[in-house]
Design goal:
One of its GO terms (molecular function) is transmembrane transporter activity. The protein is an all-alpha fold. Helices cover 80% and strands 0% of the residues. Helix 1 runs antiparallel to helix 2, helix 1 runs antiparallel to helix 4 and helix 2 runs antiparallel to helix 3.
Amino acid sequence: MRSPFVFGGLLFSFIGFAINASNASIGVKYFGTFLIVIGCYLAAPIIIVWLGNNTVGHYKRGIGIGLQVMGGNIGGIVASNAYRVRDAPRYLPGRASKSV
């Protein structure tokens, strides 16, 4: 029964990204940022533990979790190239890529 919590967290993040991509006021966008953080910090540890519990053997578990964390950290590289100066001030391509 982990998947409802993962999808619930990701739903919070998606709503936050949608709020930040809208023409809302700064305060509302700040609230959207809180939703993004809540969703990410809710879903990420559950997904990592889920992989660890479903992998047999210590070595496979260690390699699997390491690859999963590495894949998540590659998102930082993608994010640094998704927000271009010419897309300012709303940065729709960057926000769209982060919400997927």
